Amino acid sequence: MENVFVLNPEDASQTEAFPAAMADVHIDCIMNSHTMATFLPPLSRERIIEYHASKAKEIRSGVYSIIAEWVPVDSSNPPSDDVVIWKDRELAGFVMLHRTPSETGPFRAYVEKLLVSSRFRKRGVARRVMAKLEDEARRTDSWALMLDTTVGSGAEFVYPKLGYIMVGVIPEYGLSPKDNKTLEDEIKVLLQGFATEKWIVLSLMNVVLRLLDVLMIS
């Protein structure tokens, strides 16, 4: 069994286990890393489970795909008793692919909720689930992927390594879970287009502009 795979809505064991496990990773990221991800403390686990269950229901319609990495439980470093275990595995991280219903942009899709458990950081989880997401995007002809992330977050440095480029900053985008009132004004919107020449050109232009900035500063 592969560790990284796309959730199968026809597998009852997956649809039952995934929402709660995803909610726990979601909560972990908000509380331990102050990730800005929809919810603010105090967090309701039940509400976040319902959130993920609603996304799982949209898989059948083709609106969402959920990609997750489940790793075998390590007996030398077992999870806490409250961690959701599925087939002797625990959830290391996940990401969602949200396809737009737009008739003018059927090729667009959004990368949402790339979240990795604090137990599995810096082990390549984000890279692996994103690679699987891009495979899924290609399969459905979604070649323009868009997302946003907070400047200064760990994810800000992950996406460029995966070939994504910054296309803009939105100031005062959302409230920080650190104190529920500070406005995070440093949201980067990134985009990757693959399999088309125009996005390759755009990426090269971005590299040239950054080099020019460096030369001007030096």
From TrEMBL:
- N-acetyltransferase domain: residues covered: 38-190
Quote one Gene Ontology molecular function term. acyltransferase activity, transferring groups other than amino-acyl groups
Pfam families assigned = Acetyltransf_1 (PF00583)
InterPro entries hit by this protein: Acyl_CoA_acyltransferase (IPR016181), GNAT_dom (IPR000182)
Domain of life, per UniProt, equals Eukaryota
What is the protein named? N-acetyltransferase domain-containing protein
